[in-house]
Design a protein that fits this description.
alpha+beta, five-stranded antiparallel beta sheet, three-stranded mixed beta sheet, disordered N terminus
Length: 146
């Protein structure tokens, strides 16, 4: 019985730690603008670190969908608090890669979090936003390089 009474406070502490991390989970809503409806798939990658973001490596999460309208919202649920960045591109010809022009710029629509009017590859720090318990809305306007 003494052992059980000693375990009770530890069990309560562990439960409260689990509960507090759950309470810190939040949602991110990504508002995408300037999509080309019904043309290829849109790929959205969520990153939580510099190395994979700048190498365009495997994202923390990846989603794809066929856009039905020029503007769409995607909500990502229950993410832990922290710094995140988003990269999105529309694979207009559905060949599962980002096609490049001779100049090296993407031939398909693309965008990054926190980038307004910039067309070069940003760093993680330049694209990162802070997610806290209140959640976050990130607006991304896809750039069409011509």
């Amino acid at each position: 019985m003494k052992a059980l009474s000693r375990l009770m406070p530890l069990t309560m502490l562990l439960s409260s730690l689990g509960l507090s991390s759950t309470l810190q989970a939040a949602d991110v809503t990504i508002e995408l603008k300037r999509l080309i409806p019904e043309q290829g798939r849109v790929w959205l990658m969520l990153y939580n670190g510099k190395t994979s973001f700048e190498a365009m490596g495997q994202g923390l999460h990846e989603w794809s969908f066929s856009p039905q309208t020029a503007t769409q919202k995607i909500t990502l649920h229950d993410l832990p608090a922290g710094d995140y960045a988003v990269m999105v591109y529309q694979d207009s010809n559905d060949n599962a890669q980002v096609d490049l022009k001779d100049s090296g710029f993407p031939a398909e629509p693309f965008g990054f979090s926190k980038q307004r009017g910039r067309v070069s590859m940003p760093t993680f720090e330049e694209s990162a936003f802070r997610l806290d318990a209140q959640g976050h809305v990130e607006k991304i306007r896809l750039f069409h390089y011509r």
